[in-house]
Amino acid sequence: MPVLTDIEIKLDAREVVLALHQGKKAPEAMIEETWDAIGQSQALIHPRALYRWVKVLGVNGEQVLLAPGNGGGDAVLRLGPHADLMAKAELALVSIVTIGGKLDHHINELNKSGKLLEAYLLDSVGVVALAEVGKAIRKYVEMEAESRGWGVSASLAPGSLQGWPIEGQFALCGLLPLDDIGVHLNESGVLVPFKSVSSLIGMGGEYQSKKVGSVCRFCMRAETCWRRRE
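Request: output the structure for the sequence above.
Response:
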């Protein structure tokens, strides 16, 4: 199963602080401290992305039917009322991206020693770093779709798309050998290390968009997200 490891992560302290302050201006002192946190994170972040292409057989109500191939049987993903977002897909990329567990381990040690601000800033840097790994996967899908003259869907994930609960991770992640990148699901369907995330992205000739979008309007946190308010 393909694994991407050569992933460039570009981190900017101002972007990290912008997220911390929900889009509001932050003190310069915090920006400087965030640059320090970014420096510390370099030896603790190990980006990896595991993925596979699957054929999309169709959408039936709230379900998406996939043919994973390699001798495996068809897979059913219960996406809920927005399963139609995959209706135009001919192929889909299923992926897991992670930055590993070393950063979280270090953050836990900082919290235990009372260095709460340092831990908080490092945690925020990790969240942004994980988003950068996700961008690499989206760019890969966009390039593949362009080579075929196709378009792409939005990026979908259990626990963020309305109607696709976190328990949907079991079916989605069951399509990938998570051990290949040192990731596993806990009993609640949460990926461990915690700075890991799954996604399902469709592509096909009927999609109009050339860029993988978001499903903010269908997100479970749509009513409270500061980015949507902005």
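The helical segments are 13-20, 28-41, 102-112, 116-148, 169-173, 226-229.
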